[in-house]
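Note to self: keep these together.
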Amino acid sequence: MTRRLSRNAPAVANVILVWLLCACAATPALPLNSERIAAAFGSYGIEVLKRSEQLRVSDLYSGADETRTTRTFAVVQYPDVIDARLSAAHAEILDGGSIGAVLADAGWRINKRNRFYSKVIATPRLQQLMRLEQASSLAMHMYVLEAQSGETRIDYAVIAELHHPEYLSLEQAREIYGAVPRLTRSQQARVNAVAALVAAEIAEQD
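Structure:
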């Protein structure tokens, strides 16, 4: 059956296309992890536990002193070379700044491209940081953090986050960030390498 188009069809199609493009452009960015923690627990702080040119381990926490509780334990792997357009923000991040907040303040939109979800049993180190009385199951979310400005998109780091069970469950993380696409062989190899870094860091004692 042949479908006849009216004379106005091209104009209507153009209007729909413009609406779709505007709707996509207007899609708000998801709240940053720091913003979620502050909203959920009333405060937010960050301590960098380890840093090097290619690795950063961070404690994202709420509270202070005797109430301080790790809400997200983050392991960050940087690329061998940082894009020059991110060099100023990267220097601030290396100095202890919160990654998402620093990039956002510099005018970048933060996108998270999912790579892996898993459940991890809290090690003694994580039990202590998260104030858990037993070896609870934690949600782990791994993603590529992409900085975007207009049409410019730059991969900044691969980040694995382990969340306190009172903060984000695995189901909640998946609901917020969506599914993991089919990975290429090289992408899966990167996931495996970062997962190995995570295993080493959560076993390490101060």
